[in-house]
Amino acid sequence: MTSLRDETVALLQQLIRAETVNDGAIDSGNEWRAAAVLEEFFAGSGVELTRVEPFPGRVSVVARLGGTDPQAESLALVGHTDVVPVKAADWVHPPHSGELIDGEVWGRGAVDMLFLTASYAVIFKRLATSGFAPSGDLVFAAVADEEQGSRAGVGWFSENDWSTIAADNVLTEWGGARLGGVGSTAMTVGVGEKGAAPRRIVVRGDAAHASAPWGRSNAAVTLAKVIDRLQSRAPKPRISEQWLETLAALALPAELSTRLASPDTIDDAIDELSEHPELGELAPFVHAWTHTTVAVTIVEAGSKVNVIPDSGSISLDIRVLPGVTAEDVEGHLASVAAEFPGLVSVEGDWFSPANESATTTRLYAQIESTLAEFVPGAKPAPILGVGGSDARFYRLHGANAFGFGILSPGLTFSVARNRFHSANERLDLESIDLTVRGLDHVVRNFLSA
Question: Domain 4-192+355-446 belongs to what architecture?
Fold first, then answer.
């Protein structure tokens, strides 16, 4: 029988070659190609795939292996099949070739997240055809459109057909990398995601000829002052139980750990961490995991070099921690705007709250024991994703959702993250082998209880 690794590699290569590029348009993605690959993979196995196509070409496929105990917890393996666009000129090897070169599978989606989608399919097929009788339902879902908000994927299911993909527990992306560099035994497990509250600050001024600027209300100057206030009055840090668990897994020097655990000292400690020769790369993420962040991303003012601008705007990417509300965001920005009476207003009200799954669940315990079995001395490091994934929809419906994998020692958190959406995306065979066998171990043990 073909090994789990080799079967996963072969399917991964086919999924990469399907070229399911999602450029944001509702008619892009072409996930029907990945669905066709998976339908061929399951053909003749007895597994019945449900094909769902909410928009032309945006196809998801779902299978469910019924459990023996209606009261037992169910488990879903959820992977997306779309990938982000590429700039082919920046790649060493063709970006949709799926080539196996020097022990690595190359291609867009190799890391994000077709290797997991392939792993889920291989495990589900093996279990379904081996006579395995899960205690609770096992669901396999290969879904469309995760890269553009899931409006044609899990987001659509959430609003229109949740029962098809519903489960009590979920395994998905954002896990398995070593946090703290090569040799670290702190293994990331995705337990939640920060929320989002994009806003736009609008500034007013007085138009005038730029040759006589004195006394004029210059919108560009006001913009600069607003940006300065946003930086100097950034939201205070929050120390969560999740961060303390991650900090314990990192096993940093005691004095540094103590300072990173206190809201009074963490900012200075992050500065110190950034200078560390091996751990400095973690500093931006430690900051993001412990702060609601307000990032200035677009600044606009003026249209002609000799005219003082009478208006301008600042676009803000705001990512919120669990527990932070829309009212908190509005209050923070209102306090900044109040310093510029009559000149500054805030636009936008869209708010997506942060989400998080508890680390006291039975599935998390199974993840913890599996990591320890596959990586001697491993400790889970629960992290918040600073981007979004389909896990948020499951958490919205009350499910426990975790990002799980086991990557090779050299594929540290920073290295793995830098391959997301980048040129020359690739994944080594050891990571694929460890992950698919680790997943098989988790699924069999969790659904045999």
Answer: 3-Layer(aba) Sandwich (3.40)
